[in-house]
Amino acid sequence: MKLKTLAGVGLFMVLAAGPAAAASCGNTGAGFDRWLGSFKKEAAAKGIGKRALKSLNGLTYSRQVIRLDRNQKSFRISQAAFIKGRVTPGRIKRAKQKLKKHARLFASIEKKYGVPKEIIVAIWAMETDFGANRGKMNVFRSLATLAYDCRRSKFFKNELMAALKIAHRGWMTPRQMRGAWAGELGQTQFLASSYLNYAVDYNGDGRRDLVRSTADVLASTANYLKRKGWRRGGGFKQRALAEWNKSRKYQVAIAVFAERVK
């Protein structure tokens, strides 16, 4: 799930609220180590165990993440160009193959959550090419960099804490937690907080696995949309898509993809 509409939020400082609170944000890497040390104390005070906290050891400020955050090209292209780049014939063909291969699973999920299979497969395709391009960046490094950066410090500090909770609960190991530059995880790119709140164990193995379990991936995506107000039988163009991605271009592209698959 992308963060495009958060771009342009003004700079602000997150001031320390107590001895365990994280230090002020920064717009260069100069104060990153001090900030991270303070954040680790705050996380420990909130119950994050030592094993999960090790995920923060040795992290460095990522200039690449900041550069990507400041240069989101999709804002600057037309709707038609956006659709052309994402709703491709190859993806449509593969989406139809996936619908056929996982027909029973899609039918079961649609029956339970009321979200059309075409919408779910469209998101799966557009986010990661059906899991092939989940991203390889260290989620903790990305989130720590963005949490320290002043532009959206509060938002990403919450996401960093959520990522630590995922590791603390054993849903994923820190080594498995690699994803996109903004910290998105899994085959449909859940933010860490969404992973905590909306991921489901659909295959019944005791884990919410959005990396390796197709059942968990697709059902969690449907659960998210349902919880965000998706109406059964309401068509492909629903307001709930704005909760998946605030970008109007992205919402339209998902609906167009679903239409073409159908």
Structure summarized in a few sentences:
This protein is an all-alpha fold and 262 residues long. The chain has helices at residues 32-45, 50-53, 63-70, 79-86, 89-101, 103-113, 117-128, 139-148, 153-169, 192-198, 214-227, 241-244, 248-261; strands at residues 137-138, 178-179.
Major sheet: 2 strands, antiparallel
SSE sequence, one letter per element: HHHHHHHEHHEHHHH
- The residue fraction in helices comes out at 40-55%
The unreliable regions are 4-21
Care to count the β-strands? 2
> In which order are the strands of the major sheet placed?
1-2
List the helices and strands and how they pair.
Layout: H1 32-45, H2 50-53, H3 63-70, H4 79-86, H5 89-101, H6 103-113, H7 117-128, E1 137-138, H8 139-148, H9 153-169, E2 178-179, H10 192-198, H11 214-227, H12 241-244, H13 248-261
Antiparallel strand pairs: 1-2
Structure overview:
- The structure is a single chain.
- The protein is mainly α and 262 residues long.
- The chain has 13 helices and 2 strands.
- Helix 5 packs across helix 7 (117-128), helix 6 packs parallel to helix 11 and helix 7 packs across helix 13.
- The model is unreliable at 4-21 (pLDDT under 50).
From the structure above, extract its key features.
single chain; 262 residues; mainly alpha; globular
